[in-house]
Design a protein that fits this description.
With 536 residues, the chain is of the alpha+beta class. The chain has helices at residues 2-12, 30-45, 49-62, 65-95, 99-112, 118-139, 143-151, 153-158, 161-188, 192-204, 210-235, 241-254, 271-281, 307-324; strands at residues 257-258, 303-304, 328-337, 341-342, 356-357, 362-369, 372-376, 395-398, 402-403, 421-424, 434-442, 445-450, 456-460, 465-466, 474-477, 485-493, 503-509, 515-523. The strands form five sheets. A five-stranded antiparallel sheet has the order 8-7-6-3-9, with no helix packed on it.
């Protein structure tokens, strides 16, 4: 094809004509220069544009000021003639709806003739055809094709910057308008899952970008949020809330949100949060979206679930769990665990659990029902209503394992005594008590490992006392190297090693029970205590 041959020659041919800097150049020959200019004009008429430029370049070597003006006019003529000639095929293809081909040919000329005025002139002659072709694609609803043309480098190269931006904006607005139109009916009737499915399909089919989807989702999410508020407002405190919770979950998933982490310190990651994460992300750990990136949709949520929705959903899920045990708000009231307690998660008060809380721990009761109590880890302060408990509850424990009095220095019942530090008569024919740790339970007896020598002895549970060792307790220690003396504990420092004994600093007393002024350090295993000195 002759046109293609011209372009290929252009890639290898010369560019614009360089003008000379003055009349004093060697070889000035106006007559010869004039002949070369006239021959160049003949070449223009024959469509030999690069030959014409070569002749003009040669003429410039022999020109004077008058001839240089004629060379300049001839150069403009060759650029204009070539641009008009090249534009014919480009316009023909554009008018035939072959936008990509037309822009591709324009871009090829722009690259080949970059040192001439041809690219600028060609864009002027072809812009109307290009924009007409592109607009037809958009108006015909061929959004995937339009978006492909937007990102095609030839489109940007074939149009002036301002015209390219206008086309890009036109495609963007057309995409949004089309998405709104496609989701209008489903959104109006509250069929949110269908609406978002349309958006995902548009991205998957390259008819929209993820950014476009987010713009339309913003409107859909407002409708979803309004409906969730209404559902939770009507269902909280009522029977049938479990089915309403399922509706809320479907709506949140339709909103295409990332699950929001539980922010309250008392409500650590629990199975309900993990379930929501799996529901919203398909089981994968969510990764932050790259802002502004044009990507293929993987149907992954891109926006964090609003705090308000996370709060409402958590409250309704809590009510479903609470109503399963017919609970009611109580407290807040400080309580103590008596015995190790199984902790059931806030949303599963009756499910099996392996979570354990140690005996003697202070907790705060905030709700009660069905033999279980919802506890808080720290004092929650004043709680407005039952819904507020959803954000402060650590979990549920058996009501039977709670005491209103401090149990932190009480021997716990059953197997909970294992691991507890105790005072006891751990040596035969030795009236004083020493300290050890319970290692096992054998009916009415327990196994105690003496701290002093790690020997294990068996004895009745009733002979043991909680192993309190704190400031102010009277003990027997070797203040002198040869005999035990009475002393008062001043300080206890627990060992950082699992096998190390705590260190105890004592203040030694004389026979009258008065401080001698002498202080002494010893290992806790070396302490002895009389039964009557044990705290009541």
């Amino acid at each position: 094809m002759r046109w293609m041959a011209i372009v290929l020659v252009g890639v290898l041919g010369c560019g614009g004509v360089e003008t000379r800097s003055g009349d004093d150049a060697v070889g000035v020959d106006p007559a010869k220069a004039k002949l070369l200019v006239n021959e160049a004009k003949n070449q223009i008429e024959s469509g030999q544009y690069d030959k014409a430029r070569a002749l003009l370049t040669e003429a410039n070597q022999y020109s004077d000021a008058q001839i240089r003006h004629r060379i300049s006019l001839a150069t403009e003529a060759v650029n204009e003639a070539e641009s008009k000639h090249l534009s014919k095929e480009i316009i023909k293809r554009a008018e035939a709806g072959k936008c990509a081909e037309a822009l591709g040919l324009t871009a090829k000329v722009v690259d080949a003739k970059s040192e001439t005025q041809v690219p600028a002139l060609l864009r002027q002659y072809t812009v109307k055809a290009h924009l007409g072709c592109l607009s037809a694609v958009v108006e015909d609803g061929q959004l995937a094709r339009a978006r492909k043309l937007v990102v095609d480098p030839n489109t940007k190269k074939g149009l002036e910057t301002k015209k390219y931006k206008g086309f890009k904006d036109e495609v963007g607005e057309a995409v949004i308008e089309a998405l709104l139109e496609k989701t209008a009916a489903a959104s109006k009737e509250g069929r949110w899952s269908e609406a978002t499915a349309v958006l995902h399909a548009a991205v998957d089919n390259d008819e929209a970008s993820s950014r476009d989807r987010e713009r339309v989702l913003k409107k859909i999410r407002k409708g979803i949020t309004k409906e969730i508020k209404e559902i939770v407002g009507d269902a909280f405190g009522e029977s049938g809330a479990k089915s309403e919770l399922k509706k809320v979950d479907k709506l949140i998933k339709a909103g295409f949100w990332l699950p929001r982490p539980v922010e309250d310190a008392a409500a650590t990651m629990d199975d309900e949060q993990a379930r929501m994460q799996k529901l919203l992300t398909g089981g994968d750990k969510p990764e932050p979206a790259s802002p502004g990136a044009e990507e293929k949709s993987e149907d992954k949520p891109t926006k964090m679930e609003p705090k308000e929705l996370a709060r409402l959903r958590r409250e309704l899920a809590f009510w479903v769990a609470c109503s399963s045990v017919q609970c009611a708000a109580s407290g807040p009231k400080k309580m103590w665990l008596y015995g190790n307690a199984t902790l059931h998660l806030p949303f599963k008060p009756l499910a099996k659990s392996t979570n354990q809380l140690r005996t003697g721990r202070a907790v705060w009761e905030i709700a009660r029902g069905g033999g279980v109590v919802l506890i808080a880890n720290v004092d929650p302060g004043k709680l407005a209503d039952l819904a507020a408990r959803a954000h402060k509850g650590l979990g549920w424990v058996s009501a039977a394992g709670l005491k209103a009095e401090d149990t932190s220095e009480s021997l716990p019942p059953g197997d909970s005594i294992v691991g507890v530090r105790v005072w006891g008569p751990l040596r035969e024919k030795e009236p004083t008590y020493e300290i050890g740790t319970v290692t096992a339970v054998e009916g009415v007896n327990v196994q105690v490992q003496r701290m002093s020598d790690r020997m294990v002895v068996s004895m009745p549970r009733g002979k043991l006392h909680f192993g309190v060792a704190k400031k102010g307790i009277k003990v027997l220690v070797f203040c002198e190297s040869t005999k035990q003396s009475t002393a008062i504990i001043e300080k206890v420092k627990e060992s950082t090693s699992a096998l190390g004994d705590p260190t105890v600093e004592v203040k030694c007393l004389d026979a009258a029970g008065k401080p001698t002024g002498k202080k002494h350090k010893t290992q806790m295993g070396g302490l002895r205590i009389r039964r009557e000195w044990l705290p009541k």
